[in-house]
Design brief:
The longest helix is centred in the C-terminal third of the chain and has 11 residues, at 267-277. The protein has helices at residues 211-214, 267-277, 286-289, 302-312, and strands spanning 17-18, 24-25, 46-48, 51-53, 76-77, 83-84, 107-108, 114-115, 132-137, 143-147, 150-155, 167-172, 179-185, 193-196, 202-203, 209-210, 217-219, 234-241, 244-245, 249-252. It is mostly beta strands. It is built from 4 helices and 20 strands.
Length: 327
């Protein structure tokens, strides 16, 4: 037991000592004695000839992450001291195997996760909605498009005159496959919310037609009233298709009986209506000269002349007894 030789003192090697008969013994720990772990799940740790050895564990020995699912098997040693993850191969089936135009069957990503495998953002598709166009996949699992209906073209029938009783509405774009209803509102008559009917009158119920079937429609209704010297009478039209509504198109009505937009009713305006009564529509179309009754009747007659004379004498539209959208 007397100290001699190598004084090293480790988990696998005690200091050398005399054996009492003239020999210095190395005093190695017995082979197979456990020694410090090298923190590698795929190696063993025991003493061999005084040193701490770390031989590889057999291939298939469990190690690392024990997760076991569709795309990730429990980790195992490879027999060469390495812990391998054992992921399922890229493309292996997992998860939801349903597929459609924006969603492929789920696959393993080769890294242990199940990829939903959606079609790329921007992939063309069809959302089965006639009110939308340029349909594309959203990068998730849905197909969506932009609303087709645009702001309708809303204008006075002219030419050269500010109509006091009618306006034209043309939904856009031409050729659209989606049927639209045309909603009429007004920033000046805030209670007004009606739809254009196929005959150009206004109704409470949406009326749907293809844009090409609407064409350009003349809107004539007792709710379409002229502006006055004191206040404007503006009308806005929007196209509704499915859950979508277009931007607005807007026009402003002219002053009661002021056909030439001079800012007042003059003898020139009365003369123009007399010419219309005589069948002359070379300057103003009939719809511009047809100022009476409360809902114009497509006939320029003595009553239209009479009303223009009254307007010349100072009678306002409000004094005619005709209804307005918001009494």
């Amino acid at each position: 037991g007397t100290a001699c030789g190598d004084p090293t003192d480790t988990p696998c090697d005690s200091p050398d000592a005399c054996d009492g008969i003239g020999n210095c013994e190395p005093n190695f720990k017995v082979d197979g004695t456990l020694c410090p772990d090298d923190a590698n799940d795929c190696t063993d740790d025991y003493c061999v000839a005084g040193g701490c050895d770390h031989p590889p564990l057999p291939s298939g020995t469990l190690c690392g992450d024990p997760t076991d699912n569709e795309c990730d098997n429990p980790d195992t040693c490879d027999g060469a001291s390495f812990c391998q993850p054992n992921y399922e191969a890229l493309g292996a089936a997992c998860g939801d195997q349903s597929s459609d135009q924006c969603d492929n069957a789920d696959i393993c990503d080769g890294g242990g996760a199940c990829d939903p495998n959606f079609k790329l953002l921007g992939t063309p598709c069809d959302d089965a909605d006639v009110c939308t166009g340029d349909d594309i996949c959203d990068g998730m699992d849905s197909c969506a498009g932009d609303a087709i209906a645009q702001a309708p073209l809303v204008q006075l029938p002219g030419p050269g005159a500010s109509s006091t009783r009618a306006f034209q509405a043309t939904p856009l774009p031409a050729g659209s496959p989606g049927p639209v209803a045309l909603l009429v509102t007004s920033p000046d008559w805030t209670c007004l919310s009606k739809y254009i009917d196929v005959d150009g009158s206004l109704t409470d119920t949406p009326v749907f037609q293809l844009i090409d079937d609407w064409g350009t429609i003349m809107v004539i209704d007792e709710a379409v009233v002229p502006s006055s010297m004191e206040a404007l009478s503006r009308y806005t039209v929007q196209a509704e298709c499915g859950a979508f509504i277009s931007d607005p198109g807007t026009t402003t009505m002219g002053i009661w009986c002021d056909l030439d937009e001079s800012g007042e009713v003059t003898l020139m305006d009365i003369t123009a209506i007399v010419h219309g009564f005589q069948g002359d529509f070379s300057v103003y179309p009939k719809v511009v000269l047809d100022i009476w009754p409360c809902t114009p009747n497509d006939d320029v007659n003595f009553h239209d002349i009479d009303r223009s004379v009254r307007a010349f004498q100072g009678e306002t539209y409000a004094e005619t007894g005709c209804p307005v959208p918001c009494p």
